[in-house]
């Protein structure tokens, strides 16, 4: 569901009509099979003027941590409680599938892990998970530092050059910069493809030109009005490629979101894909991405060197030319898989690992820029651990404060803010904090929004829930009589570099939990730690405007409406 922050001055009559329709539906649906579950009486017009997850938060405070929301002709159960989350994600995980989310993502990701049905998921998770082994992550830290260095060098050049205002500061949309950085990294990590080194003469650019791109739009807005114009500072060739890539990927996601909110599935009508312009565009975008991935798979298969998983995990990852997951998956003995499945897997990881990480960095900077003392604390740690050097796998372990900043940014701005599930069979879910002790019966087919945003800002489980306090993760928190919740205890997950759902007993779920937990969590966390450390090592950051002027928009992740415009200065202490 796409929610965009828009102005609230729509005609009153329209708002009343929406309210009445919503109330009728709510009343009609509230007599349904969900027993005594509280029902949010919110009006549809509440959904205008602010992103959806803000409204879900208000209703959470009003109705409790499990409530039912009638939303158009659909009804959802909204969950904002760790005990219920634990039930759905871990204890009874296989009684739920991805429901609406799978419907939305299937045309793009096919049978990739995120939307996959249970049988496919079981088979592919077993094959893909070993790809994220320790040596791979170590090799990736080098990729993170190489790519981050490319970004910081670019900023330094801009500061030294004509773009700086009086040689002191540059103004940059850091959201766009992080998006570019995360794309470089995910391209290398997943299929050893360096988007960042693309020039106009590269075969890929020629390949794309050969597709004779019709009507490539300069305003390729994409899923959340992403400001592609932010890339103009990049090399021209790269800009063009990224434009094509963003155009295709965002265009595809945008269409998926459109389908999720459009009640008549007209795209299923024969010939619609050829006749309806937006469906033609969707097919075209898919073709660009799929052709590109098919080419990469072909190349990898041509140079296949088959080996057992253990052997693959012991390769000299720091020195081999291609450390990517694609290489691992193609070379794995016994994992012969058709190209279509492999392409779905790659596409899923490309999308899952790109904007999510970019968003973490964006919101971390947003929060830091409002807390200069925390920037100084972070820089003091960076100076003492790294000096002028580059981060390594070992030094990430010492950058404790930076790691805490990353997870605190994920607490306040979880990506995605909602997890989606559908009950495959009838179940009884716990009642949640202050809810019905006997729990609530839910019939098969019930759609659930698990609001990670609400959970992460729940006043029942966090002190000062809206404040940016990275240090909070170091402090043990007793359950204080909350029945069934084990409290917050860092010793519960010994050796974990980053706080997780186990430590928090499902009150902190930035990567989900249970069997379908994110497969790239450590990859993404280390990537964010390295990128943030290297930025703060060199620069001081300030917001260009007020924090209030940064408007939120949600698609799959929380974005800004018009970019995260910041002022960047070289650090005053001579670094
Ligand atoms: C699943 C978040 C980065 C690949 C998930 C889920 C979350 C999540 C919340 C669970 C979804 C659900 O239960 O419905 C994030 C965040 C990231 C990130 C916040 C960055 C900060 C990555 C990266 C990759 C990746 C870098 C791959 C390289 C996946 C995959 C799944 C997944 C394949 C599906 C797992 C399964 O169902 O078995 N991610 N992710 N993610 N993520 Fe991530």
Largest sheet: 6 strands, mixed
- The shape, in one word, is globular
**SSE-based structural type:** alpha+beta
- Give the number of DSSP strands: 13
Lateral strand order in the biggest sheet? 1-2-3-9-6-4
SS summary, helix count = 19
Unreliable segments of 5+ consecutive residues: 1-33, 198-240
Cα gyration radius (Å): 24 Å
Distance between the termini: 45 Å
Query: Roughly what percent helix?
Result: 40-55%
Give the names of the bound compounds: protoporphyrin IX containing FE
How much of the sequence lies in strands comes to 5-15%
Itemize the secondary structure elements and their pairings.
Blueprint: H1 12-30, E1 39-40, H2 52-63, E2 66-71, E3 74-79, H3 82-91, E4 96-97, H4 99-109, H5 118-128, H6 134-160, E5 169-173, H7 174-191, H8 203-210, H9 236-261, H10 272-275, H11 277-302, H12 309-313, H13 325-331, H14 339-369, H15 372-386, H16 393-398, H17 400-412, E6 418-423, E7 427-429, E8 440-442, E9 447-451, H18 452-456, H19 521-538, E10 539-543, E11 552-554, E12 558-560, E13 565-570
Parallel strand pairs: 1-2, 3-9
Antiparallel strand pairs: 2-3, 4-6, 5-13, 6-9, 7-8, 10-13, 11-12
This protein binds protoporphyrin IX containing FE.
